[in-house]
């Protein structure tokens, strides 16, 4: 519970800072709130993800799974219609998806959300639940990969104008395939250095090469008057991909672990290994989708 409570004072400070620093940015014109879009979009995603997560305890064709999932899909269809036809100031203007870079870049960020979850969340679970690390030890165990990500991301941002988007995305995807493929070989008897540290460093290189590049790809061709909206859309795609990815990957891991007769850390390791293989598949999907990007300069 403290993981959530610790954010309360941080949020309070941010609200106070925003009130003081953004006071001069107020305008007399008030834009209408897209309440219908906000409600249908949020409710649709929540229902769909809830339905997917129910498949851990129920069959895919059972009412607890199909009911929320179908409701979620229908709500998302309504959301699309509202945004395209009825909203005067839509939170997600559908016209932006006619821009190829925005559509393809957002799609890749959606896939990337699942990769980030597999890397940071499930590798932490592997360290704790399979190798027996404490929460603090698991955090320290992931620190080298976090540092690697920051270093490579800065380097990739400087390299992007010379290489173009596609080369960096393909290189990052190769790191995902190799790193997650290596990580999927880990088991209860693996050591930290060869079983986790090595592959997570490789995946971190892929994240550093890919994430800033995908953000640039998704926003490069945005109309000037919609630059802020496109930036928000890119962030939303990444967050939605992470939420949906968590639901799917956790479901797959739980279902696989439940079928293992040995139980215990060995069963959990089998579930996490499937997650890492699925993440490698997401890396391959990102590489294939990147071929649809419009060509700019070195691309």
Automatic annotation (TrEMBL):
InterPro entries attached to this UniProt entry: MFS, MFS_dom, MFS_trans_sf
Transmembrane segments: 6-23, 35-53, 65-87, 99-122, 142-160, 167-184, 196-219, 240-258, 270-293
Keyword terms, alphabetized: Cell membrane, Membrane, Transmembrane, Transmembrane helix, Transport
SUPFAM superfamilies: MFS general substrate transporter
One GO cellular component term noted in the UniProt record for this chain: plasma membrane
Topology within the bilayer: Multi-pass membrane protein
Domain of life of the organism encoding this protein: Bacteria
Range of residues in the leader sequence: none
Family annotation (PANTHER family): BLR6921 PROTEIN, MAJOR FACILITATOR SUPERFAMILY MULTIDRUG TRANSPORTER MFSC
Pfam families per UniProt: MFS_1
Flavoprotein keyword on record: no
Designated name of the protein: MFS transporter
Annotated localization: Cell membrane
Gene3D superfamilies: MFS general substrate transporter like domains (1.20.1250.20)
Domain called Major facilitator superfamily (MFS) profile: residue spans: 102-299
Organism of this sequence: Nonomuraea diastatica
Main location: membrane
Record-level Gene Ontology MF annotations: transmembrane transporter activity
């Amino acid at each position: 519970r403290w993981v959530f409570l610790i954010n309360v004072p941080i949020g309070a400070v941010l609200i106070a800072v925003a009130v003081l620093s953004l006071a001069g940015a107020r305008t007399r014109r008030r834009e209408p709130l897209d309440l219908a879009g906000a409600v249908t979009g949020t409710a649709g995603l929540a229902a769909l993800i809830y339905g997917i997560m129910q498949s851990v305890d129920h069959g895919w064709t059972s009412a607890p799974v199909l009911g929320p999932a179908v409701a979620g899909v229908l709500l998302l269809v309504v959301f699309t219609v509202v945004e395209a036809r009825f909203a005067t100031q839509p939170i997600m203007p559908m016209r932006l998806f006619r821009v190829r870079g925005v559509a393809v870049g957002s799609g890749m960020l959606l896939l990337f959300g699942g990769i980030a979850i597999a890397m940071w969340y499930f590798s932490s679970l592997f360290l704790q639940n399979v190798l027996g690390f404490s929460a603090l030890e698991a955090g320290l165990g992931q620190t080298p990969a976090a540092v690697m990500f920051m270093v490579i991301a800065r380097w990739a941002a400087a390299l992007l104008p010379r290489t173009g988007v596609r080369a960096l995305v393909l290189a990052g995807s190769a790191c995902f395939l190799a790193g997650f493929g290596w990580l999927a070989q880990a088991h209860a008897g693996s050591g930290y250095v060869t079983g986790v540290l090595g592959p997570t460093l490789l995946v971190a290189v892929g994240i550093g090469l890919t994430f800033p590049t995908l953000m640039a790809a998704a926003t490069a061709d945005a109309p000037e008057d919609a630059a802020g909206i496109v930036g928000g859309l890119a962030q939303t795609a990444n967050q939605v991909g992470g939420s949906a990815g968590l639901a799917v990957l956790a479901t797959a891991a739980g279902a696989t672990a439940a079928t293992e007769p040995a139980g215990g850390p060995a069963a959990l390791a089998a579930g996490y290994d499937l997650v890492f293989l699925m993440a490698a598949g997401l890396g391959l999907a990102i590489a294939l989708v990147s071929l649809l990007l419009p060509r700019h300069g070195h691309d």
